[in-house]
């Protein structure tokens, strides 16, 4: 096949491109220019869209021996990912920009352009596996290396996109990928993985939002209120600085009467009220989700699992689909789940689809699993 290899400048995408060549494909490497002002993007390993990354991708393409081009998608990225990120936080929700980037940029804008230019598919360094099911549909499954599995951030891909995608690393562990990169003479073999959000220069999401939102924010401050007593515990400068489940950075001074820490339970962006309370109040086992994206056929009812964070546990769940609404009943409760996050649905290792969490509720409560004891949703991740 004649394919495009999306090369971010990291070790994963470089090895994926090399494997595509080794498999007999005709490969062209591309790097996505996503910033209107590349000098404002990060240096080092905190992001994934730096000037250094573009240079690393070009050098890797030279070693592999493939043509290399830079595609400027900065306007599309700003509109579909950055603006969406700001709008969601202004509305009191917690988005995952890497899912949006995969949906709108890497497997929509890039794939559309690639197909228009006569290419057959796009290869990336994501850790996931593809196989053809008995019904002829392309199925996406978790990677062999569950610690690096990225099927969660790929749960937005539909059948047409999956038919034109290649994930060469899905059957390999990250240490093996680094060893292979060294054998191939790729200088990115020991390059650290990217972390955090690529367009937030210093990793300070709240500070970045405070600077960028401006008049888009519905308020510039409000009260922090105790859920039990209704007492005003402090003030804040913007609800965009909080997310459901947050423990640190509340700046409310004195501890609760029981001596236990408080967590953000609710965010009301119009009034500016942030409600805090004990961890047990974060437990949810009912989720209403909207805007589903299906990887294949649409289920009416699914007894499977749901993942609610990029590196979170799977929760056994019963999922009922009614048109564009997805009702999720968790059989084990989850903690600190925020509207705006993605719920990705699985049948075994197969990704069924994803939907955006609109609201949560509680019918039962139980102790959290170890990975749910975090205080904030972890940073999103992308294929490197």
List the helices and strands and how they pair.
Elements: E1 2-6, H1 11-22, E2 26-33, H2 51-64, E3 68-72, H3 74-90, H4 97-116, E4 121-123, E5 128-132, E6 138-142, H5 159-163, E7 165-166, H6 174-183, H7 205-213, E8 222-226, E9 232-236, E10 263-268, E11 273-277, E12 283-294, E13 301-307, E14 314-322, E15 325-335, E16 342-347, E17 350-361
Parallel strand pairs: 1-2, 1-4, 2-3, 4-7, 8-11
Antiparallel strand pairs: 5-6, 8-9, 10-11, 12-15, 12-17, 13-14, 13-16, 14-15, 16-17
Helix pairs in contact: 1-2, 1-6, 3-4
Features:
384 residues, alpha/beta, Rossmann fold, Elongation Factor Tu (Ef-tu), domain 3, 3 domains, six-stranded antiparallel β-barrel, disordered C terminus, tRNA-uridine 2-sulfurtransferase activity, MnmA-like_central_sf
Low-confidence stretches: 40-47, 365-384
Report the C-alpha radius of gyration, rounded.
21 Å
Number of separate strands: 17
What can be said about the biggest beta sheet? 6 strands, antiparallel, barrel
Identify the quaternary structure here.
single chain
Helix content: 10-25%
CATH-defined topology of the largest domain: Rossmann fold
Beta-strand percentage range: 25-35%
Task: Summarize it.
The chain has 384 residues and is an alpha/beta fold. The chain has seven helices and 17 strands.
